[in-house]
Amino acid sequence: MRTLDWDEDKDALRLIDQTLLPREYKLIECKHVDELIAAIKSLKVRGAPALGAAGAFGVVLACTTAITKESVKQEVTKLKIARPTAINLSYGVNRAFNAALRGETRIEMKRYALAEANLLAEEDVAVNKKIGEYGSALLDDGDVVMTHCNAGRLACVDWGTALGVIRTAIANGKRIEVISCETRPLNQGSRLTTWELLQDKIPVTLITDSMSATVMRAGKVDKVIVGADRVVKEGVINKIGTYMHAVVANAHKIPFYVAAPLSSFDSDRSYKEVEIEERSPEELIYFGSEQIAPLDVNVYNPAFDFTPFELIEAVITEKGVVYPD
Ligand code: MRU
Questions:
Q1: What's 232's domain CATH number?
Q2: Residue 13's beta-bridge partner residues?
Q3: CA torsion, points 148, 153, 159, 163, in degrees to nearest 10?
Q4: What is the CATH classification number for the domain harbouring 106?
Q5: Mutation test residue for ligand 1: of 89, 150, 224, the one with most atoms within 8 Å of CB
Q6: Percentage of the chain modeled with pLDDT above 70
Q7: 108 CA distance to ligand 1 middle (Å)
Q8: Angle, to 10 degrees, between the axis of helix 69-80 and the axis of helix 88-100?
Q9: Ligand 1 within 6 A of CB of 151
Q10: Strands across the sheet with 12-16, in order?
Q11: Rounded to the nearest 5°, which phi and psi values hold at 304?
Q12: What is the C-alpha separation between 123 and 280, in angstroms, rounded?
């Protein structure tokens, strides 16, 4: 099953609930925009390209349940801001909503929105395969590749961006091993990246985020590849911790790559203009249901950080490899 798809029979968006992985593989249905917004905020569906596709299908939900064209617009506006940092969410919503506006009645609007959302989902897979081809050429047989967070098929409709590069390299006959950083506080690296790589029998070793410098200094990493939530004028915004790995990779002369579709590019904007999502203090105070910090401690919990192009060897896109120089 893909990370998400439209269920024609139930008129619903079907998603893998990523908060339950790796303990449980469960599909959930969203029939209302509010359910989808809740799923996005709680990270049941997450990762920039997957948010783009979810946003596009969310417009279909709005056309299904809202009563007037105006109320479709209101639902769509709420959906677009469910998470602020990845540009793909508004990209997906805008694409499907602009398509919907070609319809006169809600039924027509829904038909146009669904066609566009399905097209976007298919494009996502094709784009990731292209990123994989371009990126695979940068990897050598025997490479150990470090990654952070989850930029795999769970973060997209299928295949993945950073992990898509690794999948394509392996499909092309290269032996590649992966080091996955756990990605505190929500552990997308330990819960999702390791899970999906093991499903494909790709060798992966899990480390904590704070081990990356030691592992790189020990010569255990040949390349680093991560995804992106937004590529801006001066660099890349991605999961918190990305900048730290880029600094360390540069200190050890290890190439640091970003794999991202052009739909994640927002090249005219500065990183200073982008809202970095701050998440709930509970994510640091609790580990699952276990309290691991005093309840009244002051917490700072940004979900993303910014890495300047000076630290990035290249950005791998579906149109080719872009060298920041
Ligand atoms: O908070 P998340 O899990 O949505 O963050 C995801 C990331 O930071 C990914 O690295 C990014 O979206 C790229 S996914 C291809």
A1: 3.40.50.10470
A2: 6, 30
A3: 10
A4: 1.20.120.420
A5: 150
A6: 100
A7: 33
A8: 170
A9: yes
A10: 4-7, 12-16, 27-30
A11: -140, 160
A12: 34
